[in-house]
Amino acid sequence: MALRIALSGFAALIVAMGIGRFAFTPQVPLMIAEHQFSLTGAGLVAAINYLGYLCGAYDAMRATRHVERRLWLGVWGAMALTLLSALAQDEWTHGALRFVIGWASGWAMVLVAARTNER
User: Fold this and answer.
1) pLDDT for 1-57, tens place per residue?
2) Terminus of the chain with fewer CB atoms < 10 Å: N or C?
3) Closest CA to 49 of 88, 112, 105
4) What pLDDT was estimated at residue 91?
5) How far is CA 67 from CA 7, 46, 71, 110, 114, in A?
6) Residues 74, 111: Cα–Cα separation, whole Å
């Protein structure tokens, strides 16, 4: 049972952090080359993403209600919004999406670790 819980937590973190965080990073040089971003704009989008992580992790840390719902929204939200970010055309839209993706990933990161350790 313990191995199953650990593997499910591992898989959830792979989805939330792997897709939500690391799917964007290799695309940045291509976006800069295609003039979707400037170098400064890419840095601002990354900073906005980290602000989303901070807000999501802080919110998850203080969560007392709807914890399981937030966990699932964090995992599935990071994945779905990362797919949706393919349609974004400018830095502001990417920034807004990356903030929400960061928030969802922050939820998932904190809540998966808490839930796995609790069980």
Assistant:
1) 888 888 888 888 888 778 877 777 888 888 889 888 899 999 999 999 999 999 999
2) N
3) 105
4) 87
5) 20, 27, 6, 11, 10
6) 9
Characterize 67-78 residue by residue with b for buried, 16 or more Cβ atoms within 10 angstroms of its Cβ, and e for exposed: eeebbebbbebb
| DSSP label of 17 | I
CA–CA dist 54, 71 (Å, integer): 16
pLDDT, tens only, 56-94: 999 999 988 888 888 888 888 888 988 888 888 888 999
Asked if 63 and 4 count as a contact pair (C-beta separation under 8 A), the reply is: no
As a residue count, the chain comes to 119
Query: Pseudo-torsion of CA 51, 97, 27, 80, nearest 10°?
Result: 120
Report the candidate in 18, 6, 43, 45 with the shortest Cα–Cα distance to residue 109: 18
